[in-house]
Amino acid sequence: MKKVLIWVLAVLFTLSAAVYQRLTGPTTPLRINTEIVGESVKLKLTRSASVGDGCTVTVPHHRCIAGADLVFRKFPGSFEYDTVKMSSKGEFYAARLPVQPPAGKLEYYVVLYSKTGSVVFQNNENTAVARFKGDVPGGILVPHIIFMFFAMLLSSVAAFMAIFRTGNFRLVSFVAFGSLVLGGLVFGPMVQYYAFGEAWTGWPVGGDLTDNKTLVAALFWLAAVLMNRKEPRRWPIVVAAVVLFAIFSIPHSAWGSELDHESGQIETGKSVSE
């Protein structure tokens, strides 16, 4: 029963961290709930885009909405806004943002009009920032995600085994460390390279939070594994697992790569939505 409980707890911990990271990250779509003429209208504005697929912004049809504009500008900086009329397509009004180079960002908002042409809504004080990235091959992205997930899962299993004094937590911790190395330090830089053109933008060459948090987690787990080479030591495993869980909960892509539109250089260490 202890082993079953350990795996159940580990799965719950891993899924909760993954969901929290996903929902709080700066690339998660901006959701806006508003009222127009007393009726509820929900908007979902994307904040992550592919260079290959582009970025289409949509607004759902509503009987109180007769037209919509998409207003955007390069970000960051003091650039002028451009406006394009959104076309009616199926159940939505839609328009595409101009594709930017990898790590390029566009700040945008939508303006909704009534049948009389008056403005009934605009989120110009709560804008969305979309960051573009290069297309990552599935053969690299999928292993990265799988190994990172298993690193977190097995890290939790090893920690609970150590706490409850059951099972071979040393063996599980070694596999967890190997998964972290493969997912974060092998496939991770490959993903970064395809997405933004540089394999590593963390310490000591940059301030990318995703790279830096992976490095910190790997160092803690390396120390835990080394301390367990000759004899079982429970608490280094627990500490390394807690560190990985805390790091895993940090929103993905926070303080990531950002293109400076004026210099043409990619900078790191800034929030995607700054």
Protein topology:
Elements (H helix, E strand, L loop, with lengths): L1 H23 L5 E7 L2 E7 L2 E3 L4 E6 L6 E9 L6 E4 L1 E3 L2 E6 L7 E9 L5 E4 L5 E6 L4 H27 L4 H28 L12 H19 L6 H15 L7 E4 L6 E5 L4
Parallel strand pairs: 3-11
Antiparallel strand pairs: 1-2, 4-8, 5-6, 5-9, 7-8, 9-10, 9-11, 12-13
**Portion in helices:** 40-55%
Encode the helix/strand succession as letters: HEEEEEEEEEEEHHHHEE
What gross morphology would you assign? elongated
Query: In angstroms, what separates the terminal alpha carbons?
Result: 48 Å
Our count of domains comes out at 2
Strand content: 25-35%
What Rg is obtained from the alpha carbons, in whole angstroms?
22 Å
The total strand number stands at 13
Count of helix runs: 5
Major β-sheet annotation: 6 strands, mixed
Describe this structure in words.
Strands 3, 5, 6, 9, 10 and 11 form a 6-stranded mixed sheet that branches. A 3-stranded antiparallel sheet has the order 4-8-7, with no helix packed on it. A two-stranded antiparallel ribbon has the order 1-2. It is 41% helix and 27% strand. The radius of gyration is 22 Å and the shape is elongated. By secondary structure, the protein is α+β, with helices and mostly antiparallel strands. The longest helix is centred in the middle third of the chain and has 28 residues, at 169-196. The chain has helices at 2-24, 138-164, 169-196, 209-227, 234-248; strands spanning 30-36, 39-45, 48-50, 55-60, 67-75, 82-85, 87-89, 92-97, 105-113, 119-122, 128-133, 256-259, 266-270. The protein has 2 domains: 2-25 and 136-270, no CATH class; 37-133, Immunoglobulins (Immunoglobulin-like). A hairpin with a 6-residue loop joins strand 5 and strand 6 (82-85). Helix 1 (2-24) packs across helix 2, helix 2 (138-164) runs antiparallel to helix 3 and helix 2 (138-164) crosses helix 5.
